[in-house]
Amino acid sequence: MAAATSRQDIFVSLTRNICKWWALGGGVVLFALVAVNVVSVVMAALINKPVPGVYELVQMGAAVSMFMAVPYCQISGSNVTADIFTAGLERRVIVFLGGVGALFGLAWALFLLWRMSAGFEDVYEYRETTAIYQIPIWYAYVPTLVSLLLFALAAIANLIQAKQGKLPEEVEAGMSS
User: Which residue range forms the structural domain that includes residue 87?
Assistant: First the structure.
């Protein structure tokens, strides 16, 4: 049994690290969007010529950036919770509810992965592009689908943690100290 637990701990730790770096990558995407917007505003103010197509870049980039944060939010227990309802409950009940939440997260991740995969197939097949830069829309689907796969893996890691009697935020705190 110890070997199985060890493999589970490795899976949880590896998933956590991948999700963390993926979310940081999403932060880089968001930073780039802010930079493009600042350049566009400055250019509009100084020479009356903003960066063309900034809207389409922000539209795609913001979606990708937000999806890239979702797996880390799941695995670290950073999703929105109603602690006011669980504050007086026993620890084992809170861990159980965390497991139930992870199960719902897994179901939601798989549902979104299924539907976004269908969307990806459509935009890829019909070669839909942005209006100004003609960037294929499917480019944004690739990191989004990776994010949803990581979201599912993060939820599985949370289920493993719940089975072990751990809360995600406790594991996160233990890793940072």
Answer: 2-176
